[in-house]
From TrEMBL:
<dbReference type="InterPro" id="IPR001845">
    <property type="entry name" value="HTH_ArsR_DNA-bd_dom"/>
</dbReference>
<keyword id="KW-0238">DNA-binding</keyword>
<dbReference type="InterPro" id="IPR036390">
    <property type="entry name" value="WH_DNA-bd_sf"/>
</dbReference>
<keyword id="KW-0804">Transcription</keyword>
<dbReference type="GO" id="GO:0003677">
    <property type="term" value="F:DNA binding"/>
</dbReference>
<dbReference type="GO" id="GO:0003700">
    <property type="term" value="F:DNA-binding transcription factor activity"/>
</dbReference>
<dbReference type="InterPro" id="IPR011991">
    <property type="entry name" value="ArsR-like_HTH"/>
</dbReference>
<protein>
    <submittedName>
        <fullName>ArsR-family transcriptional regulator</fullName>
    </submittedName>
</protein>
<keyword id="KW-0805">Transcription regulation</keyword>
<dbReference type="InterPro" id="IPR036388">
    <property type="entry name" value="WH-like_DNA-bd_sf"/>
</dbReference>
<dbReference type="InterPro" id="IPR051011">
    <property type="entry name" value="Metal_resp_trans_reg"/>
</dbReference>
<feature type="domain" description="HTH arsR-type">
    <location>
        <begin position="13"/>
        <end position="105"/>
    </location>
</feature>
<dbReference type="Pfam" id="PF01022">
    <property type="entry name" value="HTH_5"/>
</dbReference>
Length: 105
């Protein structure tokens, strides 16, 4: 059994903070969205790159990217005729990569 080495958060977290954390986890609660975040953890990607790497259809990737954008997990930047997607910050990548590693144990 692994011991948790991080200190627990204060017991008096505001309800808004817990609600925001819940919404973040809900937005990540999909294998495709976890895969997108994993891929974006190494840098920005275009939709066609995500389609090729994840092995799912372009409409499905676009649908999941829309959820991640709405949740402010990813940002989109238009470049010529394509849109490049990047993570808003590295915190979400750590959560996802830690969850994947944990599932592999």
């Amino acid at each position: 059994m692994h011991m948790v080495t991080t200190s627990p958060p204060p017991a008096s977290e505001p309800a808004e903070t817990l609600q925001a954390a819940s919404e973040l986890l809900r937005a990540l609660a999909s294998p495709v969205r976890l895969g997108i975040v994993r891929e974006l953890s190494t840098g920005g990607k275009y939709v066609h790159e995500l389609v090729a790497t994840l092995g799912v259809s372009q409409p499905l990737v676009s649908q999941h990217l829309r959820v991640l954008r709405t949740s402010r997990i990813v940002t989109a930047r238009r470049q010529a005729r394509e849109t490049q997607y990047t993570l808003t910050d590295d915190h979400v990548a750590h959560i996802v990569l830690d969850a994947i590693r944990h599932a592999q144990e």
